[in-house]
Batch of 2 targets.
Target 1
Amino acid sequence: MSYIPTYDEVKLFIEAVRAISDYDFSHYSIKSFTRRIEKVMSDYNFTSINDLIKKVVKDRKFLEQVVRDITVNTTEFFRDPEIWIELKRIIFDRFYDEEQIFIWHTGCSSGQEVYSMLFLLDLIGMMDKAVVYGTDINEEMLEIAKLGQFRAKDVLDYKENFEQVFSTFKYKPKIEDFFDIDQKNQKFIVKERYRNKAKFIKHDLVKDHNFFGVDFHIIMCRNVLIYFDPQLQNKIYNFFYDSLRDNGILVLGKHESIIGELSLKFKKQNTIYFKKTENYSPW
Ligand SMILES: C[S@@+](CC[C@H](N)C(=O)[O-])C[C@H]1O[C@@H](n2cnc3c(N)ncnc32)[C@H](O)[C@@H]1O
């Protein structure tokens, strides 16, 4: 049986981490954070929260490891394919005439979402004008993203996602159009032209601002804020609103939505939010 830390113990851990580092988990949803701490304690054989705290305070490398373990990194190529099919039409209709399009994937994990976007942009002839950022708090995930090398299984398990999106094109693209295949090591390597296009940078949504110096056409933040409490979610949704240009769109995960006053400043279609301003209405 694993040790289940109490609410106060989890808070104590969060305070200790905040005191010794830049990481601030105080507005993460306590329920899922407790589950993650429980897993960390079980994986590293800790039976007391004080021992875990002592270890992270003394050992910076261990702290970084724990931070990596705490963040949930699951992702996939063309996750929720129906959203990508909708995005294909929206991006083409809305942004085809723009000189450049700025896209930001926040909480991009190991990069599959960023590469899915680049594949899609390439297929609709818009990749050259796109500037695409992928950011995450977890540096280890960003290193995987930069390499663009994935186990064959991690690509082929999502074959249906690819197929669903590709079936909407007259010319039926194939998965192999986008990867070099390393048979010996059973790896799929994202083709160089996509790897060169993606800019992966560390960014912490809790404390960093929009340091890119642009307002974005598209911000994707899927399956990230679900782990934050409503107060922090609201703060970040406001930040996204300010970081979008007038005709910009925000894409959230299937189980995420903007509620309250801010929701009036967007038009919503499934998980896609179209920014509204006093001078601009999305349609
Ligand atoms: C479940 S993954 C989602 C990946 C991708 N967006 C998707 O939907 O497939 C959540 C990601 O959010 C990142 N994350 C958690 N807290 C963060 C923060 N404060 N700032 C930036 N990224 C964060 C995690 O490291 C993780 O890679």
Target 2
Amino acid sequence: MKKCNVTINWPNGVSTYSKPGKGWIESARKAGIEIPMGCLKGSCGACEIEVNGEVTRACINTIPTSNEILNIKLYTDPYW
Ligand code: FES
């Protein structure tokens, strides 16, 4: 049987479980984290997070299917 949930470990120590294809913003909120937002169109970079070492823009990308455990780091941009 194929697993459909991804474990997401957030920097505040909370883990959430989600199906691939769901949005990062919603998943972060479940963990009690507000990802900073700007344009919501993928151009400003305010919402960048690091997913298993790779930077992704949370507003336009979804939870991938390639990993079952994802470790997240947040960036803080002094301009946002
Ligand atoms: S909010 Fe601007 S790139 Fe995501």
